[in-house]
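Re: [help] complex structure
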Amino acid sequence: MKLNEKKFFALAKENGFESADLASHESNSLSISIFHGEIDSFTNNNSYELVARGIYKGKMGSISVDYVDKNSPEFLVKEIKRAASVTESDDPVFIFKGSEKYHKKNVGKNTDFSENIQEKVGILLEIEKKLLAFDKRINEVVTVGFESSSRAFKKTNSYGLKLSQKKNSYTYFAEVTAKDGEEIRTGYDVFASFDENEFNIDTFVEKVAKDALDKLGSIQCKSKKYPVVLNPDCVATLVNFLIGWLDAEEIQKHTSLLEGKLGQQVFSKKLTVIENPLEKNLFFRYFDDEGVATNKKYLFKNGVVSTYLYTLQTAAKDKAEPTGNGYGSGAKAKADVGYVIVKGGKKSEEEMLSTIKEGVYITELSGLHSGMNPHSGNFSLQCAGFMIRDGKKAEPLSLITVADNLVNVFKNIKCIANNNKLVLSNQMSCPSIFVGKLPISGK
Amino acid sequence: MINKNQALRILNSGLTTGADYAEIYIEEKDTFSVTVENGKVENSGIRHSYGAGIRLLNKLQSVYGYTNEVNEKSLTKLIQNLSASFKDKQSLTLEKLVTKKAKNLSKVEQSFASTNDQQIIDYLKTGEKVMREYDKRIVKTEVSFSYSVAKVQIVSTKGINHLDYKERGRCGFMCVAADQGKIETGFEGPGASAGFGYFLNNVDVKAVAKEVASKTIMTLEAKECPSGKMPVVIGKGFGGTLFHEACGHPLEASAVSKNLSVFSGKIGQQIASPILSAVDDGTIPNEWGSNNIDDEGNKTEKTLLIENGILKDYLIDDFNGRRMGRKGNGACRRQSYKYEPTSRMSNTYICAGKSTPEEIIAATKFGLYAKSLEGGQVNPVTGEFNFGCSEAYLIRDGKICEPVRGASVIGTGQDILLKIDMIGNDLELAQGMCGAGSGFIPVDVGQPTIRVSEMTVGGNGGEIK
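Output below.
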């Protein structure tokens, strides 16, 4: 059932709301996973989410629901009033009238997934078979799966703004274990794109299998300071925290290390980070959750802080323009970014590694929720990777920790490679970075 | 919710292609949250959710789907779509359903459904003021409360139409302290499966607020933790994160049944130090991780996992239990109707031992006292885990000495369990959220003070001096 939007906006007005808006997400997804040659799990989901907001007596109220019926307009208005009535914040609140120009593009394709389920199962079975045949040390395929989803996002408000965007994606994922004697290691990879033709079974199988096999024989290195290279995934993980410091709310509340640093050089000149939500890929967004048009911009240019990230509210407080970075579904938007690119350098990763006699190449960072202080940038994280010996990747390492401060890490960059890779989990394209010497704790 | 006759018709219409089990899970949930920041209500959020998930099993295959349209027509359409995945002959017909109202384990004093929003706000403001005024270096305070009131119906081909009702609430006390370029945060989050009366009577907001503020200021003043291998004394309560990560997850049937856990096939074997016993207990009244029934309708249980170091049992759901030749033991859970349920923990803890916490510290010449832990992570296949310390001190010559910050501890579960050499008599539970295959669910972790004879400690403070 669809919400009677006209009725909702009319009721909001009748109840004395200054303005109101609605944001809805509809998604359909299908996922299949295989275990030991059989379909282990099959899910088919249709989901709906609606967030209704309104400004009542100068305060913003919001409610989210996952279904609507004929009574919804009255219910939504009543609950928005309830939420707005308890709010005491003096911060200005806005429902956005609209940007002058939006860069709308069509991304993705329309496909009916339900018709080719058998074909997908066939592909998954082939992947499982090829993984087991890849190397005799691959002893188990933990899971192989496929997911296709299509999503539609719509935003309307009482000023007449109407924005909408559709997206679809195909995902393949697999996890294996590799065993050698008593030692057991896991390997994992995910492929995602809106174009399924980009998927290559053999390349995928090799990546998953090697991820596990390469870790066999892992040891702990001696505790000391080593020259450290971070792979693209680890770079993405850490750069995400630097971006968090650009949140104008954190700046205004004096809890960001980048307060007062706009236009100043804080990191190495080698570091340039760009946000481009308009690039035609899985992460394309032409408006943020507040309805502001997004744009391509420098976040850090040659180590200099190029912008803060403003929502409508934080922009008003600083008398600045919103930057198209207002995300989140509640009464209050939080600053966030769309697709981000960490600019690659000139040297290949091999050339970069060749300058290091003895070092550590980090491929996994874990325990971020506890080991990273997002305010101070101090971190102490479990990691895994490889020794670098005489300029080349050598024996695998596990159960080691790396500790330092994020500002130091990105201030002392020695070299950035040209091997940019799409890191799905962080919506980022990143290269490997040689960050100088960091303390590693092992045996 | 649907009535018994509708449920019978829907379930039977999903059995025609060979499913040997069918289940409808319907959940209607109201959630309210409010945040007080630096003295004022910064925002509040309301969510109303209503939907149904349907699961069909056929031997070792599972199909799952959900919808927001809870009526006979939509649910019949969904179950028939799902059943199209199976191509066998019908093996089961459901004749009748018996309605069973789940007994509420918790005493709900002052239901959230009848609690005024303002009463919660006043309660929060009392604590927030204490935290804000504790020290000038506290630059940001955020105290929040969120509660949920849920009605659940689980009806399956087991022939029972379960009706359940639950309330849960949780506070969050967070502050940020800053001084000369250093910034630290502190957090505590007491929660319960109970009404608001429980909080008024049992959670002293002023005391919790003061504890968070003092812990944060102390960390701000602390030196960086040195790194290396050392004995680690882990404090009571949230210290149980270690056991949760290192042992609890690998004991879940989702990993065990597929032989993907380090503890698969090890029942009856010594997997931990002989002084260690551990339990998962979903039946503790009012506890945050408790449930009246689990999310497939089985009674929740108190399961002895480890006794004197010997592995006794796993956490099992009916579906994964099929691979193990076992029935579920009340450990099947999910975040909401949008998640297919699987084996998960509830309130998991290491049982009390004989030593006093003072005796444990006194017996340690040098080491780390990890008084309070932040969350952790584990790979259930390899057993490798990590967790961070939110409050830690160095122990020198049997005494708690200088505080240290930024400490993290890593290891493998199998190894650490065998290295626990002292267990205190001060068991305490602490509340958290656990994320895994079937979403984020409320759980308790817990333990008395324990000592691990050697662990790898990571920190920024260089080598041990």
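Chain B touches chain A through 79 residues (CB under 8 Å).
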